[in-house]
Amino acid sequence: IIIIGLLAFRIVNRLNERQQEEVQKSQIKEEIIIPVRTALVEKGEVNSFLKVTGVVEANETVRVTSEIMGQAKEVKVKDGEEVNKGDILIALGDEQIKIQVAQAQATLDSIQASSDKIKSGARPQEIKQAESALLQAKLNRDSVEENYLRMEKLYSEKAISQQQYEQAKNQYEIADVQYQSAQESYELVIEGAAEEDIKSIEAQVRQTKAALDMAKYQLKNTQITAPISGKVTSITVSTGEMVSPSIPLLSIIDVSRIFVKVGISEKDISKIKEGQ
After folding, report:
1. Which pTM was predicted?
2. Dihedral sign from CA coordinates of 206, 211, 212, 217
3. Strand pairing of 88-92 and 223-225?
4. Alpha-carbon span 66 to 249, nearest angstrom
5. Which residues contact 71 (CB under 8 A, 6 or more apart)?
6. For 79-105, what is each residue's pLDDT tens digit?
7. Domain YbhG-like alpha-helical hairpin spans what residues (predicted)?
8. DSSP bridge partners of 88
9. What pLDDT shows up at residue 97?
């Protein structure tokens, strides 16, 4: 009985010790404090960046050339200078071309005046002059004809020589030709110019106008202007040098919009889109 009592005491004592250990462990766990940070949750965007290298290019580059051959009288711009569309870049010598324009204008004025005169018909003064010339030619022919008929009769009677007769005959023929010419001139003045004459003078007017337009075109192109606004670069001509059509004299870069040309790998191409 004593042994059983001792065993029971030890068992109970052991159970009490274990319970105390469990209680102590539980108390230790409750005393451990883990630090925690809190934040307000907000809706936003996550930015993603892609680093690449590329080449900066202008929106447009224009090579400026001359339309005509000539000598550079003055180069008005320098490399790197900003210009506006229409500004004069290079001035070519224009003295000879100005003379050509003046000559072509004078020729056109003269031919145009002749054309207007032909189309408008004769003036009253010209008609009177033609009538007077016709009357004078008729009177002269009648007088010479009368003398010719008299000499012809005398020749038939052998009263004059053949030479005298031939002379009278020639005078009559000349007077008759002069009368016929005066008659035709008078009719031309009254009727006006023939259709073919009008067409001929109109063709001359068109030809001289074309010559004048060409001279004016060349004069205009002695002033080489900027086709676009931008920055001047690559000037290849100096004052006094000859220039030829189609040979670049300088370039103008449009810097109003700049582009960067880059290479993107296939794996990154899906990460970008227009407007980013």
Report:
1. 0.55
2. positive
3. antiparallel
4. 8
5. 92, 93, 240, 241, 242, 243
6. 999 999 999 999 999 999 999 999 999
7. 94-221
8. 225
9. 93
